[in-house]
Amino acid sequence: MTNTEARATTFDDRPQPRTPDEWIARAGEVAAILAVDAVARDKAGATPYAEVKLLKDSGLVTLLAPAEHGGGGQNWVTAYQVIREVAKADGSIGQLLGYHYLWAWAVRLVGTPAQIEAVEEAAAKHRWFFGGAVNPRDGDLVIRDTGNTIVYNGRKSFSTGGKVSDVTVLEGVLEGTETHVFAIVPSDQPGIIFHDDWDNIGQRLTESGSAEIRDVHVDWAAAAGFVDKVFQTRVYNTLNVPAIQLVFVNFYLGIARGALETAATYTREHSRSWLNSPYERAVDEPYVLDIYGDLGAKLWAVEALADQVAVEAQRIHDDPDALTERQRGEHEVRVAAVKARATEVALEVTERIFEVTGARATASSQGLDRFWRNVRTHTLHDPVAYKRAEVGVYLLRAEIPAPTWYS
């Protein structure tokens, strides 16, 4: 039995948190459990069944679900903080939780009121864990209209959540049209084959391998946002990209903070001053103080910007029908700005901690390299140069980015 499995019962018979601070504290407890054997889990790269069960047992999976259905009733400002807390201990589990929040929220982005009510009630009741097979770099799944149902077929090279998910979000295009259709389907069915081929240097526990979709049937009534086979369009439908980009920002920042805190503990407890230094302790070395101060200041600055942009995003979520194309575009520019800075600072922090921990800190038993590997792996998701370009175009030409799968 792993540490995670043994300590999952910590939350049995305990009341659900009620306030944002209580939920963030709960996330801190989850992170403390994950941190104990994070290095060993990273090396093993095993499917994180126990870790997802911990997220369920702690209640974190229902954080955004309405309180009337038994969920946490919290907003995205709190959700992003929770993602950060979990990612401090384990970047993979922070990513899984963040993607879960986005896919669980997807029904609010594109669904009808009746679909939203049904999905959120079931998700909260059963503590569903969401995955998604919606990688836009691949060709779309092909959807065949058979009358009362639609049938999905195709392949996606990335499907984060994979085998640990209860439900999977699918997206495809109706044959002979340009109409995209989202649907939520059970993950455990013969028509979805997860290929167990995620073998990357970082984010090793995210179950992000490929998936094959074979004749997955969905009732037209469950096609998200469709009424009588016609999609109900609104600007808010396009907010999935800014929302998930902020998920990225926050688990990058969580990983960076985890790296900085882990390194600081190592420096205090194990690092030695340089041979010819006049100082007896590493914590008194001027260059060590300078580097920690530099990295800490940069990280705090980006965290503050991320918090500010999260508040801006929440204003949109609070009144989705009022969102205009201009407001959506200006929000995306702000998201692009914080994504660019978070990427650069997280990479710098996770790389430079070795300058202030020393040669012995590179031992594989310490696992300090996992922070950099995790950030480096996921920050290649989409080129950060395009994010900076969005900001530049807005500043120079007052133009906003058109909604795409990446903007």
From TrEMBL:
Q: Which Pfam families match?
A: Acyl-CoA_dh_2, Acyl-CoA_dh_N
The UniProt keyword set, sorted, is: Flavoprotein, Oxidoreductase
Q: Name one GO molecular function term.
A: flavin adenine dinucleotide binding
What GO terms describe the biological role, i.e. biological process, of this protein?
Answer: L-leucine catabolic process
The Acyl-CoA dehydrogenase C-terminal domain covers which part of the protein? 247-381
Q: Which InterPro entries match?
A: Acyl-CoA_DH_C, Acyl-CoA_Oxase/DH_mid-dom_sf, AcylCo_DH-like_C, AcylCoA_DH/ox_N, AcylCoA_DH/ox_N_sf, AcylCoA_DH/oxidase_NM_dom_sf
Q: Which residues form the Acyl-CoA dehydrogenase/oxidase N-terminal domain?
A: 38-118
Q: Which Gene3D superfamilies match?
A: Acyl-CoA dehydrogenase/oxidase, N-terminal domain, Butyryl-CoA Dehydrogenase, subunit A, domain 2, Butyryl-CoA Dehydrogenase, subunit A, domain 3
Q: Does the keyword Acyltransferase apply?
A: no
The signal peptide annotation in the UniProt record is none
Top-rank taxon of the source lineage equals Bacteria
Q: Which PANTHER family match?
A: ACYL-COA DEHYDROGENASE, ISOVALERYL-COA DEHYDROGENASE, MITOCHONDRIAL-RELATED
What protein name applies here? Answer: Alkylation response protein AidB-like acyl-CoA dehydrogenase
